[in-house]
Amino acid sequence: MNGIEIEGLNVWFGEYEERVDAVKGANLSVPKGGSFGLVGESGSGKSTILRAIMGLAPTWSGKIEVLGKPVEKPRARDFYRAVQMVFQDPYASLHPRHSVDQVLSETLSLHGFGDIDKRISKLLDDVGLGPSFRFRYPHQLSGGQRQRVAIARALAPEPQILLLDEPTSALDVSVQAEILNLLTDLRAEHKLTYLMVSHDLAVVGHICQDIAVMQLGEIVETLGVEDMRAMKTSHPYTRHLLESSLQSAAG
Which segments of the chain have a pLDDT < 70? Predict the structure, then answer.
């Protein structure tokens, strides 16, 4: 069984002459326990696919299956226990007046968990934050610490799938590697399935086994990360992205 199965996905915004087709005929499969990356330039439709899965893109057609079940409109409560999302900007995704304790307590309560005190301690430990962080507010945390809290919140319902929308792009380069290593460890420890969006091929190469390359709303190529590293590509746009990434790294 695949963690995520998408066939013929179309996502659009607006109607008639104002309609914008953000995703066109996308197909992808993410094996359960696998880690899959969506790459492409800004506006290529990567994040829109994540939003369609989560029910945040209202107008779509095609098939989306999660853990072997077609997604419902609107999403059922058990969907949000199985699938959680980590957003790009950890400051914007955390309530500025809620302490870390409140953020995690609310999520656990919402999903019907008891034993909240013990669970919060375990979640903070899982993401590398000690008990001293529990009653801090977002403005008292660094960007990396905020993202760790956002990851802890996503882990709170004990999901099987995490959707990662550019989870390190708002962070300093030195902190990016720490968060990527954390996500790699968490996937192994919790047997998670990842679908990750990034414009950075180095980031995707660090965490993903397979990637799909998007251009102007379409998936133009799907390949393994090892083939990506070896420049074994069949589409000129993929080669362009790889060459641009190598030039950035060299520069």
Answer: 247-251
Q: What is the pTM of this model?
A: 0.94
Q: What local confidence, expressed as pLDDT, does residue 250 receive? A: 58
Helices 143-155 and 116-126 pack at an angle, to 10 degrees, of 130
d(CA 32, CA 227): 21
Q: Going by C-beta distance under 8 Å and a sequence separation of 6 or more, which residues neighbour residue 120? A: 101, 104, 105, 108, 134
Q: Alpha carbon of 135 to those of 28, 132, 138: distances in Å?
A: 41, 7, 10
pLDDT value at position 251?
A: 54
Answer whether 3's CB lies under 8 Å from 33's CB. yes
- Domains of the chain plus CATH, in order, are 2-250 (3.40.50.300)
Task: For residue 198, give both structure tokens.
Answer: 């990034």
- Tell me phi and psi for residue 236, to 5 degrees: -60, -30
The whole-number pLDDT of residue 249 equals: 62
Residue at token pair 């990506």? 228
